[in-house]
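Long-time lurker, first post. I've been practising inverse folding by hand and with some scripts of my own, and I keep getting stuck on stretches where the structure tokens seem ambiguous. Below is the full token string for one chain I'm working on. Before anyone asks, I'm not after the true native sequence, just a reasonable design that respects the backbone. If someone could post their per-position residues I'd love to compare against what I wrote down in my notebook.
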């Protein structure tokens, strides 16, 4: 790893202050744990602050897996920074229990505007402490990234920089309703787990009313976009603080959209984007990841020229095919990449034949279909609960004639009809090798995932917000339902979450389109509503109904094949 001009660890005492009361503007208090260094007997050296707010209990010890580069210690906490690494480098860490969780009493409302106001007050309070240099940064994973978007839009004066690491930003589109389809799998598991940790765990003894929020009912009750969701989401035009948005290619089920949207849309003058691979927490705690974090905050909170702002603003791991290890990074100057060759692959339905669901029923081709065609599948294969039966249809390219890099956002423009008043479109992209097998990538729980990326849309939610839509990223209004009429053919634009993958020579790209969750869904599954019962869905394609996949094909910078470039970069990285 190359050496950088960053803060070096110094011998110091660790000062730990537990359950510190932070006063709020409405007269309430929330509580925080503070970890800070004492470099001298007098303790007069001032330091910047890294702050997190969340409902995961600041006191709850996290024991990391043995393969984590940062080793277990008594101060580790889920998705937050390690005091034993940061404090010797001259930083104070502040962990806040959000209102109604952990040691903070009050009404619980996770991911809310109230939480953002409370965090604003916490930032300004700790910045004025005698041991603080007055500069506060925000850093953390997932929930500890999500809160950053909301409080950054309030612009607290002491907040100097943020680094949302794998964090959703739009509560409706990124988390609760993928394309208007209720993302129940993760939400239900997350809610009951946090409720159990509070009501059945230690917090019951000191905060028996913690996590009382009826969150799932409220989420299902507010199934269209509205002010309810806008107050829980990023306000891009109001975020002006320096921002380093960090995503994970494996995070298409929850976080990645927030990170790419943040880089595209935030009003910040100084912003960077990084997208890596790996589990949800290994990259954050690896040495390379920590040095990147330190370079960012040293620059904005300490005024040290670490060189990070001299580098191109976009830093991407390019996935070159089916390894469960990390890939080399490549710098770019913009997102999406300026040299993108936007390529349409048309869906060409073939004659439907009996099969086991592993055989594609159509082709993906750069040539538009010569005549109109259609293909039909059951909306509820195997019955109400979708057990058995064929899950939709699949389309494949011919074997690639050369290594082909796909990096960026993707759109599925599709014409459909149904015998029901609505239909769900689940789109999954897969990388198929020369033997017809999936090439798996590493999922966020360190599991092999047979999926490149995904997209979702309820047909009744096909209305676009034309002011916010882009050619490569449709933006759906989600504020009214355009119900289907039986047999009516409509055009839908499905936003497919950004990705990066090199489909190697001889391999195929496969597109699955179905009525329910398919390959690589893991715990990010959805509620399959009653309009699917007994319905038949049809995909249409033809000259007057262009059904196609819009792909971001990336030519190699120097004309070399993408895989060869990646191999060359890997050798360079090893030498460093």
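-- Answer (accepted) --
I ran through it position by position. Result:
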């Amino acid at each position: 790893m190359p050496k950088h001009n960053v803060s070096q660890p110094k011998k110091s005492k660790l000062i730990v202050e537990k359950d510190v009361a932070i006063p709020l503007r409405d007269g309430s208090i929330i509580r925080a744990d503070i970890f800070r260094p004492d470099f001298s007997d007098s303790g007069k050296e001032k330091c910047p602050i890294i702050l997190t707010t969340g409902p995961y209990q600041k006191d709850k010890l996290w024991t990391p897996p043995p393969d984590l580069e940062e080793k277990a210690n008594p101060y580790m906490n889920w998705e937050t920074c390690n005091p034993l690494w940061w404090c010797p480098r001259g930083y104070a860490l502040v962990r806040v229990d959000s209102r109604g969780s952990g040691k903070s009493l009050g009404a619980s409302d996770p991911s809310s505007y109230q939480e953002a106001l409370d965090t604003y007050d916490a930032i300004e309070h700790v910045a004025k402490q005698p041991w603080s240099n007055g500069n506060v940064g925000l850093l953390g994973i997932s929930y500890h990234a999500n809160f950053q978007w909301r409080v950054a839009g309030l612009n607290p004066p002491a907040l100097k920089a943020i680094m949302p690491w794998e964090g959703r930003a739009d509560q409706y589109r990124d988390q609760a309703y993928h394309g208007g389809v209720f993302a129940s799998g993760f939400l239900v598991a997350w809610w009951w787990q946090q409720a159990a940790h509070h009501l059945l765990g230690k917090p019951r003894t000191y905060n028996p009313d913690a996590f009382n929020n009826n969150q799932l009912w409220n989420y299902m009750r507010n199934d269209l976009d509205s002010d309810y969701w806008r107050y829980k989401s990023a306000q891009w035009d109001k975020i002006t603080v320096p921002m380093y948005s960090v995503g994970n290619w494996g995070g298409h089920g929850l976080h990645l959209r927030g990170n790419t949207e943040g880089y595209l849309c935030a009003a910040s003058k100084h912003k960077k984007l990084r997208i890596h691979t790996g589990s949800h927490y290994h990259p954050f705690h690896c040495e390379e990841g920590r040095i990147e974090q330190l370079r960012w905050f040293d620059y904005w909170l300490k005024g040290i020229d670490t060189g990070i702002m001299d580098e191109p603003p976009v830093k991407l791991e390019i996935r070159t095919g089916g390894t469960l290890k990390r890939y080399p990074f490549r710098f770019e100057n913009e997102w999406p990449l300026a040299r993108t060759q936007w390529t349409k692959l048309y869906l060409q339905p073939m004659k439907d034949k009996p099969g086991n669901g592993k055989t594609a029923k159509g082709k993906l081709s750069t040539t538009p279909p010569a005549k109109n065609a259609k293909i039909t599948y059951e909306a509820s294969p195997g019955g109400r609960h979708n057990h058995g039966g064929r899950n939709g249809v699949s389309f494949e390219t011919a074997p690639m004639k050369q290594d082909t890099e796909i990096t960026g956002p993707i759109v599925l423009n599709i014409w459909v009809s149904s015998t029901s008043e609505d239909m769900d479109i689940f789109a999954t992209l897969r990388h198929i090798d020369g033997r017809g097998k999936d090439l798996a990538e590493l999922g966020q729980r360190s599991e092999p995932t047979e999926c490149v990326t995904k997209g979702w849309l309820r047909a009744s939610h096909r209305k676009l917000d034309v002011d916010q839509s882009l050619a490569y990223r449709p933006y759906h209004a989600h504020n009214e339902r355009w119900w289907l009429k039986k047999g009516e053919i409509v055009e839908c634009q499905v936003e497919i979450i950004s990705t990066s993958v090199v489909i190697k020579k001889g391999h195929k790209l496969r597109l699955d389109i179905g009525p329910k969750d398919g390959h690589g869904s893991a715990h990010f599954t959805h509620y399959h509503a009653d309009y699917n019962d007994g319905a038949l869905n049809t995909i249409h394609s033809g000259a007057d109904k262009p059904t196609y996949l819009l792909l971001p094909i990336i030519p190699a910078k120097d004309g070399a094949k993408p895989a060869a470039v990646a191999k060359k970069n890997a050798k360079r990285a090893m030498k460093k």
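A couple of notes from the structure itself: The first strand starts at residue 13 and ends at 23. Residues 119 and 151 are 7 Å apart (CA to CA). Happy to go over any region you disagree with.
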